Amino acid sequence: MKRSLSSLGAAAMLLGAAASMADSADLTADPGIRECSTGDRIQNLTVQCQGPIIQITVRTNPSTGFDWYFRNFDPDQLAPGEKQYRSTSKDPTISGAPSTGIYTARILQSGRTVFDFWYMRNWKGGEVAHGYRFTVIPDDSGSITGYHLKKLSHQDWKEEYRD
Predict the structure, then answer these.
(1) 43 and 7 in one domain?
(2) From CA 84, how far away is CA 143, in angstroms rounded?
(3) 127 closest CA partner among 39, 64, 52
(4) Does 142 share its domain with 69?
(5) Of 61-65, 115-119, 131-135, 155-159, which range is least confident?
(6) H/E run at residue 81
(7) Which of the 8 DSSP states describes residue 63?
(8) 7 with 70, same domain?
(9) Is residue 23 located within the same domain as residue 35?
């Protein structure tokens, strides 16, 4: 029994080390156009990188007052671009139906760029649902060669943005 437990412990350590190495590889890999799904049951997030542009596609419903916003970034490193919405309803004439939001940003300098992407009501005292922290790594020419994604909670917002 002790031998089985120690074998399980060794296997767990190896799996942990492999996962850690995979996380590190995500930061330096050259994915070209790379997609990432968070597996979140409520939000389906897709990330595509091409050259210095990062495109984030996610479910949204701006008619509720909630939308996705870039936050906590250096404007010398990141320039948020346009938002586009595509209805996911079978009848696109229905007002207030959920949609897919497509959000773009341009990386302006080489070197690691960090930004947060929050689903929130963007007014004073507005609610925050959740978000993601992106670490984007462009090469010397400015093309994105890798990124790391971390899910953020309402509690993370309170700790970082509120007094």
Answers:
(1) no
(2) 23
(3) 64
(4) yes
(5) 155-159
(6) strand 78-87
(7) G
(8) no
(9) no
Same domain membership, residue 61 and residue 15: no
Angstrom CA distances, 3 to 8, 9, 10, 14, 152, stand at 9, 10, 11, 17, 39
Q: What does the pLDDT look like over 123-145, one tens digit per residue?
A: 877 788 889 888 888 888 888 87
- Sign, CA torsion 138/35/89/133: negative
Residues 21 and 37 in one domain: no
Q: Which pLDDT band holds residue 26 (cuts at 50, 70, 90)?
A: very low
The confidence band for 113, taking pLDDT boundaries of 50, 70 and 90, is very high
Residue 47 belongs to domain spanning: 31-161
Say if residues 128 and 154 touch (Cβ distance below 8 Å): yes
Spatial separation of the C-alpha atoms in residues 105 and 78, rounded to whole Å = 7
